[in-house]
Amino acid sequence: MAAISNSIAFLGPLGTYTHEAALFFAERLGIEDPDLVACASFDEVFDCVDRGRTAYGVVGKENSLEGPVTATLDNFAFRSGAVILGEKVVDIHHCLVLHPDAQRADITTVASHPQGLAQCRRFLNENLPGVATIAVASTAESARIAAADPSVAGIANALAAQLHGAKVARTDIEDHLGNQTSFALIGRPGSAPQLTGPRTKTSLALFLQVDRAGSLSMILSEFSYAGINLSMIQSRPTKQQLGDYMFFLEFFGNVNDPAVTTCLNCLRMKLREVKVLGCYPVE
Hints:
Layout: E1 4-11, H1 17-28, E2 35-39, H2 42-50, E3 54-63, E4 67-68, H3 70-79, E5 83-91, E6 95-98, E7 109-112, H4 114-119, H5 121-127, E8 132-135, H6 139-148, E9 152-156, H7 158-164, E10 167-170, E11 180-187, E12 199-207, H8 215-226, E13 230-237, E14 245-252, H9 258-270, E15 273-282
Parallel strand pairs: 1-2, 1-3, 7-8, 7-9
Antiparallel strand pairs: 3-4, 3-11, 5-11, 6-9, 6-10, 12-14, 12-15, 13-14
């Protein structure tokens, strides 16, 4: 069954930061009334795209505090044929959200996603000392729980509070300023370019022929010779045997640039596989 052209899968429920990124991509794509499909995991988002249930998907790539999203990397490397069509960096601003009639003194429990709790630990220790915390599936889910229970506070964004009927008691409660997450718009291979931007980024997955000394140095030297500055490098286990790794790399440049083409062709002669995950515009 062909995917509806305005359909976008994202990590639900409504009000997650992935939902926020999906709304951004819908606007950039010129989709006025997007069919947003909430998924329980990033694995499900990839499945929706790969199986044609949706035309697009939105997945988290990397957080400035927690690092790469490994579920996304593993899908790109081992499970999915989807490619990256665009990228959006979302500023992460956590809010303390409450039941509309609740006061701070009513709170006996704070609920949120584990990362939300971890990223607001200082605020909780200073403002809600001794209050129990519980982990839930998403920050948006914590807003839904808080909206229904005056004794529970959630840590979520303002969008989640609005959608689920909770009130925002405090804004910007995260411990670290500059907390950001990059999200990728994904689609099936061959999808026509839909977005434009001042710069182009390329994402790669590289698989070694054999694990031997100097393999990473050899890879990096090819980019150095071509004058390509890498913006990200991350190793992941191949899931074949202990100590067997592959690499993800990103850089600003287009696969059609002569220097990039030469670099990738040299790598293809030395590696088992050079998988281009996407060549896409960024802001």
